[in-house]
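Dock IPE; give full complex structure.
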Amino acid sequence: MANKAEIQHIAFIMDGNGRWAKKHGLDTLDGHRAGEKTVRKVMDLAEEFQIKYTTFYAFSTENWKRSQGEVKGLMSLLGASIDNNLAELHEKGVRVRAIGEIGAMPAATREKVDTAVSLTQGNDKSHMVIALNYGGRAEIARATRQIAAKVANGSLKIKNINESTVAENLYVPDIPDPDLMIRTSGEFRISNFLLWQLSYSELYFTETLWPDFGRDDFIRAIEAYKSRKRRFGGR
Ligand code: IPE
Ligand code: IPE
Ligand code: MG
């Protein structure tokens, strides 16, 4: 099925791995492993439905609050996932991008992310954005620092700071804002995700836990999007 809904960008808050694991009597990390498989499925669906941009919230600036074991497990899962999928993504023309404070990630994870980003930087068939050590507030604070530095060095005048200036100083300024944001697991909140970019995105929430998210859920979300009327403040 082609992308008749004209959706360019879908952003995912992949939530519910922990509850999925509990429900199945498994360890939390087994839930994250199952969630990682869902990312691959969703990338295939994105290809099939011709969604050019996808963003996946993989680790938030707040997720460091979790146990050391879970954080370490998530980091190594992430590295393993890059190792296992990078060649295929590259072959399919996917450009991998990362948003978040990647520099503050453990070195082993950071290096794998950097490898994925640099290997695929010439690709343009589709773009996969991974939000890692990402927080919307941190992103806006970082943009503010960059803008302040330009004012301080005289290359930007205060009176010329506008919405485009802020947008240009986000992590990946060349990616269109999400048309649709999907959050799984029945939580109805944004949890510090893409605060600037989601201003006019359509939001879709499902009770499905992320490891169970599949083709039917994906189609339901797209159908819901098609039934919405985006007004952007107009009539
Ligand atoms: C989302 O699943 C994955 C990450 C936050 C890394 P959770 O681990 O938050 O799953 P629940 O919310 O505990 O079920
Ligand atoms: C949001 O999920 C972050 C990611 C999916 C990476 P959380 O599970 O961390 O969010 P809260 O704690 O329910 O708000
Ligand atoms: Mg959660």
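Observed: Residues 68-91 form the longest helix (24 residues).
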